[in-house]
Structure formats: structure tokens, C-alpha cells
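Hi L.,

You mentioned the student needs an example of a multi-chain input paired with its predicted structure. This one should do, with 1736 residues in total across all chains.
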Amino acid sequence: MTALTDITTAPSVFETVESEVRSYCRAWPVVFERATGSRLYDEHGRPFLDFFAGAGSLNYGHNNPLLKRALLDYLARDGVTHGLDMSTTAKRDFLEAFRETVLEPRALPYKVMFPGPTGTNAVEAALKLARKVTGRETVVSFTNAFHGMSLGSLAVTGNAAKRAGAGVPLNHAAQMPFDHYLGGRVPDFLWFERLLEDPGSGLDHPAAVIVETVQGEGGVNVARAEWLRKLADLCRRRDMLLIVDDVQMGCGRTGAFFSFEEAGITPDIVTLSKSISGYGLPMALCLFRPELDLWQPGEHNGTFRGNNPAFVTATAALHAYWGDGALRSRTLGRAARVERALLDLCGDDGRSAVACRGRGLVWGLEFADGERAEAVCRRAFELGLLLETSGPHGEVVKLLPPLTATDDELDEGLGILARSVRHAAERRTTGRAA
Amino acid sequence: MTALTDITTAPSVFETVESEVRSYCRAWPVVFERATGSRLYDEHGRPFLDFFAGAGSLNYGHNNPLLKRALLDYLARDGVTHGLDMSTTAKRDFLEAFRETVLEPRALPYKVMFPGPTGTNAVEAALKLARKVTGRETVVSFTNAFHGMSLGSLAVTGNAAKRAGAGVPLNHAAQMPFDHYLGGRVPDFLWFERLLEDPGSGLDHPAAVIVETVQGEGGVNVARAEWLRKLADLCRRRDMLLIVDDVQMGCGRTGAFFSFEEAGITPDIVTLSKSISGYGLPMALCLFRPELDLWQPGEHNGTFRGNNPAFVTATAALHAYWGDGALRSRTLGRAARVERALLDLCGDDGRSAVACRGRGLVWGLEFADGERAEAVCRRAFELGLLLETSGPHGEVVKLLPPLTATDDELDEGLGILARSVRHAAERRTTGRAA
Amino acid sequence: MTALTDITTAPSVFETVESEVRSYCRAWPVVFERATGSRLYDEHGRPFLDFFAGAGSLNYGHNNPLLKRALLDYLARDGVTHGLDMSTTAKRDFLEAFRETVLEPRALPYKVMFPGPTGTNAVEAALKLARKVTGRETVVSFTNAFHGMSLGSLAVTGNAAKRAGAGVPLNHAAQMPFDHYLGGRVPDFLWFERLLEDPGSGLDHPAAVIVETVQGEGGVNVARAEWLRKLADLCRRRDMLLIVDDVQMGCGRTGAFFSFEEAGITPDIVTLSKSISGYGLPMALCLFRPELDLWQPGEHNGTFRGNNPAFVTATAALHAYWGDGALRSRTLGRAARVERALLDLCGDDGRSAVACRGRGLVWGLEFADGERAEAVCRRAFELGLLLETSGPHGEVVKLLPPLTATDDELDEGLGILARSVRHAAERRTTGRAA
Amino acid sequence: MTALTDITTAPSVFETVESEVRSYCRAWPVVFERATGSRLYDEHGRPFLDFFAGAGSLNYGHNNPLLKRALLDYLARDGVTHGLDMSTTAKRDFLEAFRETVLEPRALPYKVMFPGPTGTNAVEAALKLARKVTGRETVVSFTNAFHGMSLGSLAVTGNAAKRAGAGVPLNHAAQMPFDHYLGGRVPDFLWFERLLEDPGSGLDHPAAVIVETVQGEGGVNVARAEWLRKLADLCRRRDMLLIVDDVQMGCGRTGAFFSFEEAGITPDIVTLSKSISGYGLPMALCLFRPELDLWQPGEHNGTFRGNNPAFVTATAALHAYWGDGALRSRTLGRAARVERALLDLCGDDGRSAVACRGRGLVWGLEFADGERAEAVCRRAFELGLLLETSGPHGEVVKLLPPLTATDDELDEGLGILARSVRHAAERRTTGRAA
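Structure written out for the whole complex:
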């Protein structure tokens, strides 16, 4: 591991100039330089297989050549880069491609809003719109939800450490149990429905419910399709808007383009970001039923909502991957393969993982505690695989391989993961700190 | 104007699919395709001189060739595009360049935080940090301030229409009069200081004060250096952190790299975005004194805080424009030229503008009402010049030409502006709606 | 019923001058003049048996002669009436009596605070103290809780109509299911405990939990002693203060002086009001463990916290009723008698009540809907018995007879109630509107 | 001073049982027993001339014999004591007397609401109503305002120590400068009007403005009639409700029944409490224009809003003092006498008071700091006069003698005050701590 240590001999500019808030670079103490497909390379040329994929922003891999071509061409011919919300040919191409490959085939009637180019901006826009349209304040979110770091999004996010950073009380939100949260001991939505039907419950009638179909940061918690359908039904019956935050799980991560398609529901509002540009470039969308489009011009704006290079790669990605069902099928087909591999790592021997869960190509391998999960990721990094933990205690190793990973890469990553689990358990047994 | 009208014969995808929230595209009903330097071109090749510059995001012009080269090279060689907060060579280069060309020459001790890549994200981070460090909630902002659209930033933004979009009450903020707000009839900070010194005033001790040195969206309101020094002094004496939001006025817009340099003050926290990447790519920074760097790792995070292509162009821009004082001198030198031209357009005849003001290359030409200012911008667009209004009533035509505009371009734009003012007044006189 | 109707021939001063907010007077359209023991008399001398008892403020009956003597003597000899928080002999007498008859026999170490003389003022003080001591904001309350109408208390109150009156969002509160709320299908505190143990739940660590042992306004919902013990245990384990709001259920209403004694728990903070003065005079107390007494002098104050005539009657009441266990025993003994009578009125025939519940001398008779319950109360009024509805839909007839009612009065009231239930059902059957 | 010291030999029940929140009893360390007219007597019979009058609750003196008779009669004949909002003869008598002696002679069209029996309850009701009627949240209050301790009232109260007790941020309020606050250097309402007329000011359109005509707790700050008229005009022009909180200054304290009469304005909402019952008994009213009476029945309620003994004394007080203009004239006539006496105590010698101000029989004598003012009150107490400080630094000795004080009592009190000022200055000079 010499490559890892020699960068730490003198304090780097990261240590002297960058804020203490930095985090991933602490777990992966190398300096990355290049990336293609499923691999990142550090400045010494050492390759790392990437099962993190930009926290879900690189579903089509790094510097995907199909998109790279379009991007380089666009930049070379001086296409508009920064467009605010001006009409541009790049934006038109994107809107047409999105309508043709995403909205029309699914008979989704959504209007498309370009908020600022980040997930939290899309969520802020969604929350504003839901409150504006209904004239109510409360938004219901779920345990272990993650929706972003700006003040509106943070109020519907569960993580206590992130919430503590707000510096002001986080209000206008109410939490409900996500699927499986109470261990199956309570009928779905029993509590929520009681609160809604009882005028003495103290729950002010919510403007909306915001939900992730699979909670990535929250620990790869997978909502059943049936649970989502019940939620959609509850929202309709009780006059609440349903917002699906598909920032991380959209763009094919679970198989279909939208993660909620499997459940057969149509949310009122959908947020997209991360992999929508396809190339890791900042971009976000907020989609909603046309009858909700009550925005005044400019009522929600932002400097970078017209990041046209991102529109170009987004358009290329839609054409490359969503003109047919191939990617979807491949992703769904791989789920079983990953699940088998992960099940092999689970057991009740105190050394193995305790459970695994996932959909499509998002999977979580849960350990007894955060320390064990972190040790696995640390070992995986040493072995050349990038993996991160998630969950309230950091107890879940999260797998987010590029959807475009080859079968070999998938096997390679799963193999390293298996070795990492074994090694971490051995280190633990021999009392050696990793 | 045939080119303008024939696009409206059938509803475009912008009209059918994009949300009603879109705004600039309504004032400029063409589809832009290409851009270089100070000019944008629509899809029919018609050029527009750009005195809007991406709302201040394109200080170095469109597709600046010095930056373009670096960007294309980086992308071509598969540099990391999406880096979260991992260490990358592109980020290291940027941090080093920023330290060498910006921080060290000004003896600024700041730590650098990469929040999400938008101005509002940088502001949210600044507000969080100020509250976290002080343990207080209230942040003081100024009349006609604009700090962003996410919930935390919106609470310190003045615009009533934007605030109304929040859907929840905006709290933990208090407004004070910006410089000149009370027409010079009240000593600077008389009211603010009285509130602070009086334990019965009802103003909870603020965590921080957030200020723009020149309020762009608010109407190109220019704070005097003396006023800023008094504010900095007040903050120090009364134990409040001073946040300068330099998102729009930083990166040389007013001459110096930071807009507060002229006043000789050192804010506790500074936000930067818009022109920091130099190429219109989403990027933002939050700078703060090292003793304030009490963040826990990951306490504020975001998917696109590591937009590495933006780091590449940002580094190139720092090297190209901030290694010496040439750009600064040139910008400062041009201020007088613009001022002279604008003063010629002011008068008390009811047809002219009523006042002008600015610093460096941000200028406002104030009209009696928003209708007149809008008519001027409309006519300027017909004559091939992009200009926008600002101010609480949209009564101020705002000039934000690229800092890299040639002298001829500057003259050309000022000439079109003069004609537009004249034409708009004539149309008004002849009772003709534009 | 002539007496009832002839008052409505000309609009009364109540109708022309008093606000529309008045409510009880609408259900009981007579003008009351006099009251003794268990009876009120209207201005025409018509008696009404009072099973409402000032919403629990008249546990010792109207104008109880034991207290009346003390009050008249005090007033006659010009005792201090209005004392703010000055020390007075009347206050000293009260504090000594409270210590001797209430605190010491129960080994309760409480400090005694005199907030403003109403229940909501005591609750506001309790909430402030809990937040101040813990440095946290969130207070957990229960479904169908009622704690008062001022802004702090209203935020922990469940009733939607009352909450809607706030005019601002009600924050810093979270609702949990009261005992029996989920029909026994969910283990006690499963949801609450999960939220507390999970750092990703989104529930900010609460300062306190506020609970009524029996929810009066909420529909006479009776918490089991075991449930209360589990709650007290949860508060201790999870470092939350336990506030018992005994405003309505304290002072012997459930048998013991404090309603929580039966469960064997010792809350951290207790609020008392309503019957504490014994004579219907405004008075309230906030009790708390001495280590919580971190108030600054005057930090919470109020003009009428020293209502000395109330102290005089309160002292007399403590001596008359709490020097021994007689009242307690009698109240407990009567519970069975009331329950038997109410059970006779329950059935599944669609005409009877659907359930009854209570403790001591607070009982609820639940009907299928609010309309039926209201019809019963209306008929009871015609027959000379004052009864009110409660519960989220007004579906529960609430019995709060004076604890000092004679056996005959109790039987009389239960008899009228039985007739009222029968008559209301008959009217319903014959299609006659009451 | 033996009488004062021997009570402290053993810890009293006040010290061992009562909360540390107690305050007045610390300044006046005796135990009061009896009171008549302008005097209180401690348990040893020592008399104290009362220039505090229950913080303005005893405008007609202690145990006023005219009211005492009515109260004893009412209680003796078992009149209803506790009436919630039932109609009673005592309430009818009060409403009729209030209409005849207060509303009709002044052509005030107000509806009368009985909120809970304390000032803060009346304020909470006023704020709720203003927000409900306008659909807005923000209420503007003034520097050094005092409106009460429950959460809604506290948010519009200026005192930092009281605000700190809230434990949660106090929102939905904005502060404006009270009359004279900026030392006459700023035109009245310049700042407020600018904020209102400017859609970019950041002040959300207020529901209402709440004001005291004379700020008692805030330091006896007297608003000029002209300032109040401008405020009323501003409220009308800018569509904000005007709430006058007349809790302390109403009921004749400034001469007229309402303190705002002198200015010739008609507020939209008025709160009354303190002296309205006339006997120091808890009672409060909220008055408002009939078109604002949009309350739902019971939307704001409270257990003790029907404190009928207070109605009885209130009615007696109205008949005794407000059937003609005698009390008003007498109070107004005495103002000059008090002012002369206080002016004699002012000077710029460093030993005297620095200023005095007041209206009717509320006066403030301002000292250089709170320590000096407190020393004066301490000495006055030793000399048998009860006086309290007010103002943000406790620097103002406040005079609130009963309106019914005789001329001799007034002279006596002013004489003791003069001696106290002299003695306190001497003690200070000789370096002796009081």
C-alpha cells in the first residue's frame, strides 16, 4: 500500500485548504485522475473498480464514449453552455427526446421544470409547488429518508447528524414509517391513515407525501410495490400530492427508467437528477401533472438551471439507452445474479453479513454494526473496489455498480466484496485493527 | 422581425412540455444555438450582443478559447468528471491555483468548502455554518437582497413574489435597510445598532449578517465602501459573523476579484459561484475563516459538489485572468466610460432614465417604472442586444457585459441601449404598444 | 319548554355584543344565575343537575359552603386579593397546606410555580421549562390531546378546528398514538421507541413528552396504568422529561389527588389548574423536580399569578378533602356504580351507545357519531341535566359530576341520562328532529 | 428594619417550596396580609403605600368598598362563580354596563370576546383573529413592547431575557421603532412605510400591528397622539389591522377609559385585562370590529373565561367610575402635579434622575442606569413605598398609584420618592451599599 501512504507525508492542499466537511476523500485516501467505464484511476495509474458510481450519478459509467462524442462536438462547435432558462437548441433536443423516449411511451403527462441543477434543488421546487398548490404546509416524509441538504429538503430528511447541521429547527414535516420499518408487526399505513381520518390526531392535513421507492442513503430499504400502491391510493383518497424523489433510483437504477414504474403508480410530482445527464454533469428535473403547473414565471429560478452541456449528454443517453428496453432488461436480469452473490455472504455466524436487499442494480449488504460494514469497505478499497456504507448506523454496504458494467466487472466486484467480507471478519477475529 | 414570429406558429416543445415557471425565454423569444465571446447566436444565425452574461456567470465571455482548450483536453483524456468530494488532480490544481492567485496575494486565510454547485447551495452552507458556530438562529439580511431560492436562502431574500413561492413562513431572518435605502435621511446603521444595544428591542442576537456589496437582482444598488466598513465594524463589535454573498459580484465583476476588496474588509464567510468556473459550468464555493471550520465530515454534502470539468475551467480562468492585475485595471477603467454613457441617458424630462449607478462592469439604469424599463429591454432585443431588468418593480435596466468584451463591443452595446431608450420613449409618446 | 324559548324573542346582549366565539351558551340557551352543590339555577329558578362541573373545575361542587366561609371571611377582612408573586399570608397558607396534604404524604419533591392562573399558562410554563432545561425544541404529545389555546399549548393539542385557529403553522411538536389508539394491534410504544433509537428516523430528540392520563376533551380516553408506566420508563431511558398535564384529571377527579398516582409514576413536571382553587376561581400551578428549577427570577411571569382569593379557597379545599383518604375512596367506589349504569346503555342495536369508559368520576359514553351524542345531550338538557360531548367527532357524552354529588344526585343524573339516550333514539326512529 | 430581617432567620416555605421564578417577593421581603385603598399591610401590620397597584391591576385601589359590597353580596347569595362561556346574569349585567358606559358613549362598535382571564390570553386571541381574518402570519410589534409570556404573545414582546425563556425561536413577528426610539432623528414611520411600499423589502405583508400607547414594562415610553394617528393611518392605507394592547394602560390609567381615546383613533382590535375587574380578579377582554368576528364557536376557548365574580366587580366599577367623566378629569388633572414633582428630581448633576415622562397616572423617572433606579426603589421600600423599575435596563422607576389615591397619598408617595432619590444618591456618594 505504498501508493496510499506516500501522499500523506506532507499535508496536501486538501488538508490545508479544503474544509473539514470533506468526507469521501477520507475513506479513499488517493488522488483520482482519470476514469472510464466502470473504473477510476488514481494519479499513479492504479485502477479502482467503481461500485459507487458517483452515488448513483454515473449509471452509464464514467466518460461513456457514446455521450463523450456528443459532448465534445457540442463544446467544439461553441454550443451555448450556460443558458439560464432561455430556449436553446440543446434544450429543445433534450425536451423532445425526453418526451419521446420517456414520457410518451409511459403515457406520463408531465410538465418538465428545470430547477437548479442538483437534487436538492429539484426537491425544494417540488415541496414549494406542493405547498403552493394545496395551500398547506406539512409534508410527510419517511423514516430514513434522504432528500437533500438545503433547508427545505433537510426538513424531510431523517439523518440526525445532517439535521443537526441546520442550526434552526426543521419544521412543516411529519415522519411516517417506511415499508418494513416496524418489522411487519403493524399493518401498512395503519398509523398514517388513523392520523388522517381523525380530526383530533394533531397531524395538520399534509400538502404532500415525499418518498423514495428505494432509500439509498437510508440503508437500501426497498419498498414493496404493493406498499407503494397503497401509498398512492392513500394519497388519492386523502387528497395529498404524492412526490416520488427519484433522484438516486431513477434513470434505470432499479431497471425501468423510473423506479416507480414497477408498482404501476403515477406520482403527482417526480424529481430527477444524478444520472439524468448521464455524464456526471449537474442537472435536475422536476416533473409534475400539468394541472399542478401553477408557477408564476420565474417564481422559482436559479443560475445553472440551463446547463446545456448536460442537456446534450442527457439527450445522447436517452437515445442510447432508452429507445428500447435492452438496458432495462439487462439490469433486471442482473438483480438475481447480485442477490445470489450477496446471499452467500449472509449468515448467522456473527462473521457474515446479516441480510441483503435490493432491486435492479442497487443492493445493500447489512452487517451487525457500522464498524463491520466500514471494515469491509476499507478492505475492498485496498483490494481495488470502491464501496460505500449507508444506513442510520452506517451498517449497510451499498452496491451501485454502473448499469453498463460488463458481466466480468460485475463478477470481479462481487468477488472482491466476498474477499473483503472474509478478510474483515478475519482481522476482527485476530484482534487486528484494520 | 420575421425570424421572431415564425417560431410561434405552432406551439413549441417549450410551450407544450416545459413548465410555466420559465421566464427569460419569454422576453427573448428565439432559440439560441451557439455563443462565442460577447455574442449569442440563435438557430437562424442571428447574433445578439450579450450584456446579460448569464446573469453574471460569464464574466469571461461565452466559450472563452483559453478555457475551452483546457476543458476539451480534460474531457478528451477522460479526466474524472464527477468526483463528489473525492480528491482529484483537477481539484488539487484548482485549490492550488485558488490559493496562489486569490487567497495568498490578498492574505486571506480562508478554508475552501465545495457545497453543491449553485449559489443557493453556497448560501445555505454559509447560513448553516454561521448558525452552527454561534448557536443562534437569526440572520440579518438587507432590503432587496437576493440570495437564492432554496428555503434557507429564500428567507434572507427580499423579493415578495419569490418569497410567496415558499409555501411556508420564512423565519429566522430580520431585514435592515441597505445603503441609501432611506434616502440618506438616517445615519448609517442607526436603527440596526439601536436594536443590538437594546436588550428590549426584540431582535434576537443575530448569528450573522449577509450582504451583497452590490445588489444585482435588487436593482444594482451599490453599497459605499464606507458603509461596508461600518457594517464590518458593527459585526465585529456586536459579535455577529459577516457573510458577503459574492455570487454575482465576485470574480472580477466590480474590478477586484472579490467585490469587498475595495472596502478593505475581510468577511468571516464568503460565497462564490456563477463566474467561478469561468465557462458557465455549475460550481460554487463557500470560504470562511479557519477557526469557523467546525463542520463534521459530510455534515453538509451534495452530489455535484465535485464537478471536475468546472474545476478545470476555473483553474484556467484563474491563471488566465488573475495572475496579474490587468483584468482588474481594465474593468475599473471601463466603469467611467459606461457611467458617462449612462448619464447621457438620464434626465428629468419624463422620457429619459431617472438615474444610473454601478461599479466596475455592473451598472443599472433606473426608469420611472418597470414598464418603461421593460420597453427598453424589448427594443434592445429587437436591435440585437440582450439586457434584463432588475429592482423591486423591474424598473432598473441592468448591464452585465462580459469583462472580456472589446471596446467596440462595449460601445456597440451602449449605442444600442441609447437607441432603445430613445425608441421606447418615442413609442410611448406615439401611444404605440411595443 | 316555554322558559327556554321566550328568551329568544328579542336579540339578547349576548347575541348583539358578545363574539360569535361563544359556544356552551348555544347548547344551553338559558341564563344561569345561581348555583349550589351539584345544581345550577337559571334566572327563572329552574334547576339543572350539573354533570359538567365547569369542565372539571368544580370537583367540590358549586359554592361549596366549606370554602365559601373561608372566602367570604378573607374578602371581608380585606385580605390581599391581587398579589402578583409577592409573599402573602394567603399564599404561605396555601404552600404549607399543599406541602402537608399533597406533596409530603406522596413523597413528591416538587417545587411549586405559580404561572398565570389558567391551565394553558401552566402548560406554557411547563413547555418552556422543559425546552430550557434540555436545550431541545421538540415536545411529543399524543393523538387527541388537549393542552390549551395559547400558541405553545395549541401546538401540542390535537383538535384540527382549534389548531386551524392559530393562523400560523404549529411547530416543535410530534404526535404519538395514545393508549388504545391503534386498536391494540400494535405493541405499546413500538413506533415511538423505534423513532428514538434510530438516528435516521427524522424525529429530533424530544425535550419532553406531555400526556394526560385520561384525555377529557379528546373523548375520555383512559390510559392504562401499565401504559403510563411504560411511558415513564421510556422517558427515563431515552432522556426525555415527562410532563403530566393534570389540569382536568388532577384534584381527585380520578380518585387520587393526582391522576398518575394509580400508575405509581412520578412525572418530572406536572400542571394543575381547574379544580385546584376548589371554587371555580382562576388558579394554576406548575410543579417540577427541584433540579429542573433553573428559572431566572421573573423569566416567566403574569399579572394574575397571585390570585389570593383562590389561594384561600384552595387551602380550605385541601384541608377539607385531602387531609384523609375519604374523598378518594368515595370517588373510587363510585366508579363501578357509574360504569354499571353506562354499560346498560351500550349495545350493538344501532340505538344504544357503542362503548363506555372512564376512571373515578370521569366517564365517557361513546355513540356511533357526533349527531347522536349531541341529541342525547340536548334531550338531557331539556330534562334538566347538563352534559357535554367530547372526542374528535363530538361522539362521546362526557360525565364529570362533582365529586361531592350525593348518591341520590348521581342516581338522578344517571337516570336522566338513560332516559335521554332512549328518547334520542326514539326521536331518531320517528324521524323527528330534536 | 428588624421586621424585615427576622423573617429570614429560617428558610420560609417560599424559599423551600416556591420556584426560583418568583421575583417581586425578592425586592419586597415581607409577607403581605391585608390591603385597603392605596395601602398594603404586612403580617406585622406595617403599612406600605402602593404606587405599583398590582402592575396596573388595581386602578381603583385595594378592596375598593364600592366593589367589595357587590362581590360579597354575589358570593353570599351563591351567584354562579365559574361560568365558562355560559350565559349568566352576572355576564349579562357586565355586557350591558360595558355597552352603556364604555362602548356607546364612545360610539365604538366592538364585539366583546371573553378569552382566558389574563392579558396574555387576550393578546393570543387578538393575534389569532388578526391572522385568521387576513390569512397572513406576520405581526409587527414595537421595540420594548411587552405583550405577555405565552408563546404567541412572547414573539411580539421585546425583552431579551423573557424571549430567551421560550426555548424555541420566536417567529412571525417583525419589530419597528416605537415613538422617540431613534431620538427624533428619523421621520416617523419612514422605515416601516418604506418596507411596506417596497415589494423587495423582505417584510412579508403583515396581518396586523400591535402597540401599547404607553409602554409600561418597556420603560414608560409614551407615544405621542400624532404618532398614534399616523400609525392608524398607515394601518388603514396599507391594509393591516391595528391592535391596541390596552391591558395595562386601559381602564383609565391615562385618564380616558381607553388610552387611545386621546389620539382620536379607533383600533380594529383592543385587548383589556388587569383593572377591568376592578378588584384584582382575573378577567380579560378582546374587543374587535364586528366585521372581524369570524370566529367559529369555541375556536378559542378557556376554562376561566367566565370568572363571574370578576364580572360582578367589573360591573360595579363601570357604574361607580365610568358613568360620568369625574375620574377621567381627576386623573388628567393630577398628571401635571406628578410631572412637576418628578421634574424636580431630574437634573444633569449625575445624582438626580435624567428624565421623566408619563400620561395620566403612569409615570416613569429615568436614571442613568438600572443600579441607581433599583437603589431608589429599595430605599423607597424601606421608607414604606412600593415602587418598581421598568425599561430595558431596569433604569426607569415606574409610578402607578391607584387612580383613587387621595391627594394626600399622592403627595406622600411623591415625597417618599424624593427622599429615596436623595438618600440613594447619598449612599452612592458615601460608597455605602444599600
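You could point out the following to them. Confidence is low (pLDDT under 50) at residues 1-7 of chain D. Chain D touches chain C through 113 residues (CB under 8 Å).

Best wishes,
N.
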